[in-house]
Design brief:
The chain has one domain: Deoxyhypusine synthase (Deoxyhypusine Synthase, 3-Layer(aba) Sandwich). Helices cover about 50% and strands about 10% of the residues. The chain has 17 helices and eleven strands. The chain has a six-stranded parallel sheet with strand order 7-2-1-9-10-11, with helices on both faces. Helix 4 packs parallel to helix 15. It is globular.
Amino acid sequence: MGNSKKDYLSGSKVDPSPLTGSETVAELVDNAFLAYNSGRLREACHLFTEKMLADDCTVGMSLTGAMTPAGLGMSTIIPMIQAGFIDWIVSTGANLYHDVHFGLGYSLHRGTPFVDDVDLREKGVIRIYDVFLDFDVLLDTDAYIREISALPEFQRSMTTAEYHYMLGRYVSGREKALGISHRSLLGVAQECGVPIYTSSPGDSTLGMNVAELALAGGELAFDVSGDVNETTAIVLDAKQNDGKSGVLMVGGGSPKNFILQTEPQIQEVLGIPAKGHDYYLQITDARADTGGLSGATPEEAVSWGKVDPDRLRDSVVCYLDSTVGLPVIASYALAKREPRELKRLYSTRAESVERLKRAFKESKGYKKGTYDALISSS
């Protein structure tokens, strides 16, 4: 019944070398991260580097928490994009909004959480835990976003990936004019053809500024169904011809669900045969027993069809702060793997959606009479 005693004791011995202070991050991970949450972080580094970064795997990242104000866009995510380690992203709008500050040449500052917030308000200083920024930075960034979003080319319905790509092009241009480079995640993603989606486009200052333009008669609107179909098409494409799909989830929240729901959309809604994502890697501080999505485990995700049950062994959850876990995983991967060729999924979105449509029409979920009549009347 079950494993033998020998099986249980077959793991590597806990026998680390003494630290010297000269270790690289990769050496520290492999030698000293042996148990508890450090052990899960070591497993995460190995899963990401050895399996998710294989050439046949498409890697999606979900991004929550105030990562860009903490500098992780510049220090960690941009190098991962440039190395071809991230192929598509689902982010909170807040991360992308605060990312724009850096592309416009504005500064954020290290502060302290132990401060009088009433005094900060009176002095015009915004606090994100222990990061401070001038309130004028928000106002100037708002004005820039409205100016760009009011341009004629933006006055139509578009997916959030298209909006972020177009905005990223302008932010990248502003960087060049200022003599700075690769400070904006949006700008680098645009240059590398990495599509960035927002699962709740109205839930950030980016969305608030677009809403302000709508009051003035602007016609920019986000195509949320287009976002669902494009992300689903990316995953369906990834799984074709024995390819694989891996998800790296930084935090939880709505972006986590949005990146994972691609598989239930394929199976449950569209009726296309599939088995779930192949690789599941999450950094979170959320508990599973509260019933929230942020803490939901990969085992629970199997019941929804989000994760392939045959590949559940290829899933790791690290219970620690993302500002600790993500840089360690990125540094380990950059030390251990050569850069991958950029997939540039942004430029192939239309073709991917067409393939999704064909697969849907051939599936059990397609109700021919009803849908044909709907299509012909539109």
